[in-house]
Amino acid sequence: MPTIQHSNTHSCIVMHIVGRVQGVGFRFFTYQKAKSLNLSGYVKNLDNGDVEIVACGKINQVEALIEWIKQGGPASANITHYNVKQIQLHEHYTSFNVKY
Fold first, then answer.
1. In 19-100, which residue ranges form alpha helices assigned H by DSSP?
2. Do the domain assignments include residue 92?
3. Residue 95: inside a domain, yes or no?
4. Number of domains the chain is built from
């Protein structure tokens, strides 16, 4: 799992998920997982069939979401590849949402 560098106890990441991740409830289950971890941000389908996640929160909670993806995410999905990048957000998210 990538180690996230941070200057305090919070971090924001963007994840790009590749595989069978659309039409299998991936956004719904990711939303539920992120909410259970008290993360803010969003999950959305991309036009090319991939999924994008932006997640912000306490570092250990962000890392827990990454680990969940690393372990395969929802049982209905088949993740073939993912990447994670730490980001600086220009907008502040107060909750986690599904974007359409």
1. 26-36, 59-70
2. yes
3. yes
4. 1
Q: How far apart are CA 43 and CA 50, in angstroms?
A: 11
- The CATH number of residue 95's host domain is 3.30.70.100
The rounded distance, in Å, linking the Cα atoms of 10 and 25 is 28
- Where do we find the tokens 């389908």? 45
For residue 13, give both structure tokens.
């990441």
pLDDT in tens, 49-91: 999 999 999 999 999 999 999 999 999 999 999 999 999 877 7
Active site residues: 27, 45
2-60 pLDDT, tens digit per residue, is 455 545 689 999 999 999 999 999 999 999 999 999 999 999 999 999 999 999 999 99
Domain membership of residue 20 (yes or no) is yes
